[in-house]
Design a protein that fits this description.
Blueprint: H1 13-16, E1 22-24, E2 30-32, H2 47-51, H3 54-76, H4 79-95, H5 107-124, H6 127-161, H7 176-217, H8 224-236, H9 253-276, H10 279-312, H11 318-326, H12 334-340, H13 345-350
Antiparallel strand pairs: 1-2
Helix pairs in contact: 3-6, 3-10, 4-6, 4-10, 5-7, 6-7, 6-10, 7-9, 7-10
Amino acid sequence: MTASPLHQTALDSDEAWGAKLEMDCACGGKLLLWDKKCKGCKAKNPFLRLLKKRKQVEQFFDQRIQVGLMPELDKAQLLLGSARKYDLVLLAVLKRPFPEHQKKEDINLFMRRVVNFFPSMFKSSSPKQTAQAVGDSIKRSSVTMARIAWKECEGLLDGLTGLGAPLLFGQGSGVQPERVAGDLLLAAKPYIEALKTLQLAHTRMQTAYAPAKEIFERPLKSKGTKGLWNKARMKFKPVGERLRLPTAIWENQAEHEELKRLDAQLGKFLEQIRWFSDQRAKLEERNDRQMNTYRLSLRKHLVLGLARRYAAADPAARPMMVKRVLSQKGVGSWLWRVFFGVRGASSACEE
């Protein structure tokens, strides 16, 4: 089995605690990690003292994972940050789907703002670009999360045991980013599918803008008889709810229909945004479930690392390793730690 800090949930609890591990005895014989004593020299196996404290050791690891490891993994997970930023963009579109005309603002200056507004809005609210950003976030996150998991676990076990890791412990770490990326992609898949649905409305809105853009760019007269006539036309024949124009800018019925079509497609995009609004919350729920799985995996990985380090250690160093673990607050009793514990072991582990 390949050691992998974030993918050990399927590991049996006893197996994580080294039930099948074999180690060398000082006499040259072999024994299993869970054996009470060596069959050859009858020397006692100190690891049994840790087995009696399994619950306390696991709680110790859980606390270190929660305080030290999970915040770092959360920070390295860029997917949710990308989704939150996109939420803010969509919220801004909902609040302001079309520029507001200022009092006494020249109509041509206003239409210039309108022409500049739409391309910027199309780009920032693009579901396709957001989906591409999700893919990039997953790729970068997976590498960083895998690195953090290995580094933090190794550091914690180094401080706890005072012993280096056996060679077997680090094998297979190169595939870890790919597996993390697969986990993140699975959690993001419904979100990406929702982005594809939103993209349909976004594309139709952009298509409807193309003929309307020519109308927006045309020079207009806002004064004199022509200006009064255009304002009157606007009152009797408005474009729609979203395109709040201060005056009529169309020259015929066909152009009026083009503007109404853009207004309608803009309205449908806003409806799709409201439908999309709960997708980030659902993404965060799936991410929370994945992180809970990682918590369990990290605990099993640390327990397995503890067992492997003990098995690979020199027989003479094993009793001190056990003593260091029992010296941790929450593992050994307070009275035992005061009279028999290893001084500095707890602070070394925290570092």
